[in-house]
Records
---
Amino acid sequence: MSEDFNMSMRKFLKQVGVTSQQAIEEAMRKAGDTSGKTYEAKMVLTIDGVDLEHAVTGKIEGS
């Protein structure tokens, strides 16, 4: 893959990571007391034009 592709992909993934963390933290603050709770999480990535749909699931522990 080209250097331009690698750079654009890394920039996109960094943006996804930073903005997703911010959104999760805000949602957990709004939820109130989350201590001792576990939340199912799912992230879905789609790319138009290349027929990609990729889902990642996991758990997030409350604080």
---
Amino acid sequence: MNVERAQDLIGTPVFDRNGDRVGRVGNVYVDDVTHQPEWVTVRIGVFGVKETFVPLAGATTEENRLDLRVSKDRVRNAPRIEAEHGHLSDQEGRDLYHYYGLDQGEPPTEAEQRL
């Protein structure tokens, strides 16, 4: 997925791997090296005031929806991270990858390549 297309995700409804609605995309975060979209924040809660980082790895998009490969509970219980100046530190990125059970060296799946 290119950056312009990723920015179009802002405000898109987000669903977990079981098809349950999680929230809406708040922001898109791009990798510093590859300049490819890597994370989105998902606004959750009644008023969408809590934002949680979720990896785009394995996510798929359809018309007006983003489907994640993680559960709603996993997103809701993710570590709270405040990205300073719109940027995740290397340690925060590693912590999130670990939390979501992703290996940073993992090659993209076919679904990721289609984004």
---
Amino acid sequence: MAAKIKSGDTVVVLAGKDKGRTGKVLKVLPTENRVVVQGINMVQRHTRPTQADPQGGIKNKEASLHLSNVAIADANGKATRVGFKVENDQKVRFAKTTGDVI
């Protein structure tokens, strides 16, 4: 199956506590159908001190979101669906709302 959302894409959150916010995709977890978006779905984790982090304490980090709860943002910043087409013998993704190549 072709990936509609890739790392580095700008996405809009469609559902959940961060609905309406936009962010950049940091990581895609295709086997779990989840994505990690920068600054979205922040959770607190208690970490114990280690040699790498002698302080330890409570750290904020991004938790993953389900793919169905995010959509690619088009040039106007609105949520759009993704289509595929062939240009110059190359398969490319394009925004359904504007027709722009992503």
